[in-house]
Amino acid sequence: MVSISPLLSVRHLLALSLALNVSLMLSIILEKAKLEERVKGCPMKLEHTNISPFTGDGEITDNDETIINLDHGNPTMYEKYWQQMGDRTTVVISGWQFTSYFSDIKNLCWFLEPELAEEIIRLHRVVGNAITNGYHIVIGTGSSQLFQAALYALSSDATEPVSVVSAAPYYSSYPVITDCLKSGLYKWEGDARAFDKTGPYIELVTSPNNPDGFVRQSVVNRSGGILIHDFAYYWPQYTPITAPADYDLMLFTISKSSGHAGMRIGWALVKDEIVARKMVKYIEVNTIGVSKDSQLRASKVLRVISDGSGLAHRFEGETFFGFSHRDMELRWYLLREAVNKSEIFSLPDFTPEFCNYWSRVFEPLPAFAWLKCGDGIEDCETFLRGHKIWTRSGRYFGVSPSFVRISMLDRDPTFNLFVKRLSRIRSPE
Fold it and tell me: What is the pTM of this model?
């Protein structure tokens, strides 16, 4: 047997590590150069906006009086893509269709349309962001209803209210939804990092996180805990798809995957059959199922996305994820330019990672910007409102009001107006 000197082995390892790091840096530099080249030829500049947010045409003259409302995550940026698709996602429903409550009585989730179930499985397989084998699919009226159904299912046998926690900054609707009904089954307990109570608990893990965009793991590490993973933003336009998610209970929504928030369709992938049945029971009692009309539309939209996302089409601009990813790259580039010009704001820095879907390295491009005000501005939301920019304060997310969450998903004219105005804001002093 040939023996290899330890010194030689270490040298080889160091050389390999150096080569990998150089390759990673070259990939990042190349992608940045490509983005800058696209920006040069793109009409979306800080100095110009070409379309009115009200009429759809004409040029916006920013007189600092127009209210820019970026408080909500309304994904209207996707409208232009679906307009280009024409009738490819048009659905015609005859008057006699969908008169029954039931979709598939043999399925655990009896109100789930088989066509939608097939397209959900297919999309996850194409994107590679979640395992579906061995899971039950539970459909809901948006992921908000599924979140409530999950809370019920995971706490229905508890003898005392189960604590519900999430690491701050957490999604601002979690406390509201959890305590809305003042249920005796569960109770909001705030920041998971500060949680020190004994007994059972449910931890909400949103990854990428809303509002700050970082990839998350659970932080409460002890017995008696149950995890709910919210993967609303684990799609290739927002973040590198590093591996398929494989957790006990995972939530997804069409509102952030395709931009069709008005459909009110979400789905959960649930391993435990008993938990899945309890979630179905909650939705049955709550709304007696989910709109079949919306399910049919959702299945058509997901089919169009998957059809354009095969290996032969992933890098073409007309595919949904290609369009969305490029738009998000450009928006984040422009926002960082505006922040640099202003000099009183800051944004998070993200670590680039290799994306299995795109087969390249890129930095996360979150659906929300987690902006911090400097120069002694303690209430960033109020400060920006003075410039007629509406945002959501960090206090709703369990942190300092010096932070605000800003939607990156509005229509082009609104976003263009926002970055243009933000770039002109200077210190109040």
Answer: 0.87
